[in-house]
Write a structure and sequence with these properties.
heterodimer, A: about 180 residues, alpha+beta, 6-stranded mixed β-sheet, 5 helices, 7 strands, disordered N terminus, B: alpha+beta, 7-stranded antiparallel β-sheet, about 20% helix, globular
């Protein structure tokens, strides 16, 4: 690319270019957040996962069936970070389930709105694959969409709301680690 | 059964094997010197035809994994085969080889009957579905010979109860399609005329719909023309049902309303002149609704719902459905890779509650000393597991010692999620009612749900949870029910553990021929209601009933 062209364009419309850069940076920042989020769950570091939410965060996993019909029941239903903490704590300290590997894949991020006060709404597709330690195959455990609200705390993005809406009608046996 | 000719001796090579089909069962014939022997045609290890294998020194080697059996006795000789092969008596009539399928060879190995019988029955079933479905006396008799309950009685449950295809198919016929009331819906799911949901009776898909007169109808989701499962939406509202394949239409009572081109075109084709629409409606089931909960039955002359539950279980049913109108909060649906009866048993097994669910104990919410009851109805088919919540301070040091999970000082960051808001006229804060054959009514403090079992085979079922509140709940009560819902369902602190444990049980029964479960806890109660949590008396009561219903 010819530098002079960029300079000229920039000189003509600096505000427009800043907006584009800002949205690019925001997009990248959310993608990096989602990658860290996926990694924390993949490695079953649930205490770290808890810290990705604001104190008043809502975290709900619900079926497409319930979501589309406006029915509120969630597989996991947390309406505060305290409940997210309890979820993480109980799964780590008390729950009995067969050992497994999980891989969370997050893609097709769309930033829906970004407000001056730092609140960002976005959505992204997700897939969770599961491998039981003693079984040969990876199975598609869940596929769905995150509907998110981010807020900034101390400059860093945190989730104020994540609704995980899964499309597969049937949960294969049990959902042991959050999505 | 008598001798039957199955081959001519000249068809079997010397020191060779010949596969023949006897009434749908594969049989392998062998010629050793001047003698002929017969065994089951399929290896006991994997699905391989022994007639494709190799005969050497009086042994047959399976072509698939090289397991070997002694041809004369059927004895399993080397890995990977562990189960003996069924043998059949053989006699030669001139050149004709005759065998008796009911009689083992003279020198059969002692173990070559019991295990193999199951496989043979399944093959027979596959070969001729009418044999067992028709349930003539002869096949019933041979079933009782094949599926023999352990001599110890109800303190043992043989694995075939949970793993066998023939047993499963008989359960569908005798239990789910038999004299039972099967849960299909809550009335609040179909509040208006034309509202419908899809549901199941046993594995069979049905539609539950409210008609214009307010009645609720249940019929098979199967077009009477070409069997298409015509209703494809999980729920909705319609004026009529139209099968998409050939546009046959049915009213909300399931009556056949329209057949396109019934009189043909240009005087040609069409249905016969005597075609009677009233004879070709959807297959309708007997329906009964009690306190907003809808049940259906294939039996036309069912006993009343009240009699079916019995007074004690009915009382608990009506303690939960206490006259307030249920409101729909949503669904959980999941598969569970275990036999459907294990789910009943899990809720007739209060022993597991404090041992598996360490969440309850860790946070001091339930301990073995809590006041509790494990109720069984007079028949043994229904049950109610009940307990009263205790305050944390009341955990005795004895009880704590028993449970490694109890830990001082552990607490929830959001303890109100475990609050119990008194709303029922009942001494119990938790009741789990198991209503035979497909319903669980969950009243876990304030999180309420009905769970519908949809069996799909001996090794798996689908569970559909319909969570509800009541008309009159304010927003905070609804929130409270939803928060407390974290205990239950396939991601619930308790629910996920139940699902995992049941899967482990089914896993444990694979590849272990002749296995049995031990259910001996609480010998003071042979089978029935017990006040102790450390009891399996209700599981025994359920199997007393199951054996009667199954004729086994």
């Amino acid at each position: 690319m010819d530098d002079s062209v960029l300079t000229r364009d920039h000189a003509r419309a600096p505000a427009a270019l800043d907006t584009r850069l800002e949205s690019l940076l925001l997009h990248h920042e959310i993608e990096a957040f989602n990658a860290r989020y996926a990694q924390a769950l993949d490695e079953q570091r649930l205490a770290d996962w808890t810290e990705m939410f604001t104190d008043d965060a809502r975290y709900v996993v619900l079926s497409r069936e319930n979501f589309d019909r406006g029915l509120p029941v969630g597989l996991i239903y947390c309406d505060s970070k305290r409940m997210i903490h309890d979820r993480a704590f109980a799964l780590t300290e008390t729950s009995m389930f067969a050992p497994r590997y999980l891989r969370h894949f997050i893609a097709n991020l769309v930033v829906l709105s970004a407000e001056i006060n730092g609140t960002v709404k976005s959505r992204a597709n997700y897939v969770v694959l599961q491998v039981l330690f003693d079984r040969p195959d990876a199975t598609l455990h869940q596929v769905g969409v995150y509907y998110d609200v981010f807020r900034r705390e101390g400059g860093a993005l945190k989730l104020a709301e994540r609704r995980c809406v899964y499309d597969n009608l049937l949960v294969p046996n049990a959902l042991c680690i959050p999505v | 059964m008598a001798w039957q000719r199955v081959a001519s001796i000249s068809e079997i090579d010397a020191d060779g094997v010949l596969g023949v089909d006897v009434d749908g069962s594969p049989v392998a014939l062998y010629r050793l010197g001047n003698e002929v022997f017969a065994t089951a045609g399929i290896c006991t290890h994997a699905l391989a035809l022994l007639s494709d294998g190799f005969v050497e020194d009086g042994k047959i080697e399976c072509p698939l994994h090289q397991g070997q059996f002694d041809i004369r006795s059927g004895k399993a000789l080397c890995a990977p085969v562990t189960e003996d092969l069924r043998t059949y008596a053989v006699k030669l009539d001139g050149n004709d080889v005759c065998i008796d399928m009911e009689r083992p060879a003279a020198n059969a190995a002692p173990g070559s009957n019991a295990g193999d019988a199951i496989r043979t029955a399944a093959q027979e079933k596959k070969a001729d579905g009418r044999k067992i479905a028709g349930s003539n006396m002869q096949s019933d008799e041979s079933l009782t010979q094949r599926y023999v309950w352990p001599a110890e009685g109800l303190t043992r449950i043989p694995d075939w109860v949970y793993t066998d295809q023939t047993i499963y198919e008989r359960e569908v016929e005798k239990i789910f399609h038999g004299r039972t009331w099967n849960y299909v819906a809550l009335e609040c799911e179909v509040p208006k005329a034309g509202d419908f949901i899809r549901s199941n009776v046993g594995p069979t898909p049905v539609v539950v719909v409210r008609a214009d007169d307010g009645s609720i109808n249940v019929f098979e989701n199967r077009c009477s023309h070409r069997a298409a499962e015509f209703c494809r939406e999980l729920s909705g509202n319609v004026k009529e049902f139209v099968c998409p394949y050939h546009q046959w239409s049915y009213d909300l009572q399931g009556n056949l309303a329209g057949v396109p081109f019934r009189r043909g075109v240009d005087g040609k084709g069409g249905m016969p002149a005597d075609f009677d629409s009233s004879q070709h409606g959807l297959h309708q089931l007997n329906v009964k609704s009690h306190r907003g909960v809808v049940f259906a039955s294939y039996a036309r002359d069912m006993e009343s719902f009240e009699d079916y539950l019995g007074p004690e279980v009915l009382k608990e049913f009506e303690a939960t459905f206490d006259g307030r109108k249920p409101t729909l909060l949503g669904y959980y649906r999941h598969t569970l890779p275990g036999n459907w009866k294990l789910y009943h048993e899990n809720l007739k097994d209060p022993y597991h509650a404090t041992l598996l669910h360490t969440f309850l104990v860790t946070f001091g919410l339930l301990v073995a000393g809590n006041r509790s009851l494990m109720l069984a109805d007079a028949t043994g088919r229904h049950g109610v597991m009940a307990s009263a919540k205790s305050e944390r301070k009341s955990v005795s040091s004895d009880a704590k010692k028993e449970m490694r999970a109890y830990r001082e000082g552990m607490s929830l960051a959001e303890p109100r999620f475990m609050d119990f808001v008194e709303e029922f006229d009942s001494p119990w804060s938790v009741t789990m009612a198991t209503i035979w054959p497909n319903l669980i009514i969950q009243r876990e403090m304030n999180t309420l749900g009905v769970r519908q079992i949809v069996p799909t085979g001996p090794h798996e079922f689908i569970m559909k949870w319909t969570m509800f509140g009541f008309e009159g709940d304010d927003e905070e009560m609804t929130r409270h029910r939803l928060r407390q819902g974290n205990l239950m369902g396939p991601a619930g602190f308790l629910g996920l553990e139940d699902n995992e444990a049941i899967k482990f049980v089914q896993d444990g029964m694979q590849h272990v021929p002749g296995g049995q479960h031990l259910v001996k806890l609480d010998p003071a109660v042979a089978a029935g209601t017990s006040e102790s949590l450390i009891s399996e008396a209700s599981i025994r009561a359920m199997y007393r009933h199951w054996r009667v219903e199954m004729g086994l």
